[in-house]
């Protein structure tokens, strides 16, 4: 496992909590007990913070609100729609509700609605095969064709493995075809970093995110301050975006 993969796995709250507890145990045996207790308490606080719906609503909702969802009929006509591969919390409608396949909204679903509303004549699909199989670009193309989008409207970019590469490789396609304005489709949570990457590359993008997923459910019994396993698991996506923004800023990519 390389350093990048190790850090990516360490982002998962449970993994970090276990790692910190292991470090605290070693320090305790080495008689650095004050430091050990401090690390152990931080681990508990970190785990509790990311298991609370209130924390996710604050931290994740803040990112989603940078670019609010806009219905297709309120967006302008452009040269192309760009869709970035990936998904957040399985495309579920709301992180705090049970998974319902009938309510799932993927990025390709959002692109299909924009295309059918006449917002652009082309859709650029960006994403490589993360597992060595079918690329995300091809998988999204297959989904769009099932929804009635003609194959000649689809442009595939199947090489990018990161958001930065999404921007670099897609920008090349945009320049080759002399496209000027594009609608950028990704999850609402991912949109701040994605938009910043494309703008840094000189691409004029109009955010067209999928509907937000980190919202208060319509449930009078919803508990803001009750630790929840689903919230704890999904927190990885929020932490990843904040970490990604910091790393991309340090590298001059946003």
Question: What does the model show?
Answer:
With 254 residues, this protein is α/β, with parallel strands linked by helices. The chain contains 9 helices and 5 strands, in the order ααααβαβαβαβαβα. The two termini are 27 Å apart.
What is the structure about, briefly put?
The chain has helices at residues 3-10, 13-29, 33-51, 53-64, 107-116, 136-146, 163-176, 191-200, 229-250, and strands spanning 80-84, 123-126, 154-157, 181-185, 204-207. By secondary structure, it is α/β, with parallel strands linked by helices.
Please specify the SSE layout and strand pairing.
Layout (H helix, E strand, L loop, with lengths): L2 H8 L2 H17 L3 H19 L1 H12 L15 E5 L22 H10 L6 E4 L9 H11 L7 E4 L5 H14 L4 E5 L5 H10 L3 E4 L21 H22 L4
Parallel strand pairs: 1-2, 1-4, 2-3, 4-5
Helix pairs in contact: 2-3, 5-6, 7-8
């Amino acid at each position: 496992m390389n350093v990048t993969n190790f850090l990516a796995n360490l982002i998962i709250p449970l993994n970090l909590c276990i790692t910190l507890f292991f470090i605290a145990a070693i320090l305790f045996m080495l008689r650095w007990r004050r430091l050990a207790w401090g690390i152990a308490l931080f681990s508990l606080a970190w785990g509790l913070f990311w298991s609370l719906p209130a924390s996710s609503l604050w931290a994740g909702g803040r990112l989603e609100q940078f670019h609010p969802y806009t219905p297709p009929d309120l967006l302008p006509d452009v040269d192309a729609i760009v869709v970035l591969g990936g998904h957040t919390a399985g495309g579920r409608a709301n992180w705090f509700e049970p998974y319902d396949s009938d309510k799932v909204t993927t990025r390709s679903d959002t692109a299909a609605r924009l295309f059918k509303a006449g917002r652009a004549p082309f859709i650029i699909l960006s994403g490589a095969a993360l597992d060595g199989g079918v690329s995300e670009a091809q998988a999204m193309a297959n989904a769009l064709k099932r929804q009635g989008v003609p194959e000649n409207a689809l442009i595939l970019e199947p090489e990018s493995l990161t958001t930065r590469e999404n921007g670099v490789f897609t920008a090349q396609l945009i320049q080759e075809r002399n496209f000027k304005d594009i609608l950028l489709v990704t999850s609402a949570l991912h949109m701040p970093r994605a938009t910043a990457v494309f703008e840094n590359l000189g691409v004029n993008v109009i955010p067209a995110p999928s509907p937000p997923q980190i919202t208060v459910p319509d449930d009078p019994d919803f508990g803001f301050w009750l630790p929840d396993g689903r919230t704890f698991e999904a927190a990885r996506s929020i932490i990843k975006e904040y970490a990604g923004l910091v790393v991309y800023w340090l590298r001059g990519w946003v």
